[in-house]
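Entry 14. Structure prediction run on the chain below.
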Amino acid sequence: MTMEFARPYRSHSHIPAEPGRPYFIEKGMGDRAHLFGDLVTVCAGGEQTENTFNFFTVEGPKGDVIPAHLHPDTYEVFYITDGAVRLFVEDLEGEQHEKVLTVGDFGFVPKNCPHAYRIERHHSRVVGVAAGPGGTFERFFESLGTPTDEPGLPPEPYVPEPHKFGTVPHRYDVRFLPGHQWRTGS
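Output returned:
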């Protein structure tokens, strides 16, 4: 059985728009967006959880570092199900940490801590969960990126116009840090 719900930003969705409804999503059939070279698939978000958490996957090819950013009110986790991802995190005292996470590894980013990541192996996948008093940010991916009904990676990377980076913090708990430098080894 397939459930499809309309959304203002896409013709259909497999995710119900209101909380309190159980639902199931087949592999890869959440709300998808292309951002940079990656495919982001949202399976649950603020609309379903009364803004308490979100659940999404990010998969992509080996590539560049995702821009440094932080979430003032949101905690984020990274769980690697395929491949390898290098996670960069700066703690509240300014100490920077870097770790290559492989299948089964877990990374935790506290709220208000700058972070970024780089996919280190082709066909890598991260399961992400974010939660906190600031709500959820999962719709950031399709706002900054582009919604897609395609299940695969974008044929060409989708790089947003520079002005779009400035509009994201107004709607989501994401603050980009242009010029942030990682002093770690890689």
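The two ends are 46 Å apart (CA to CA).
Filed with the rest of this week's runs.
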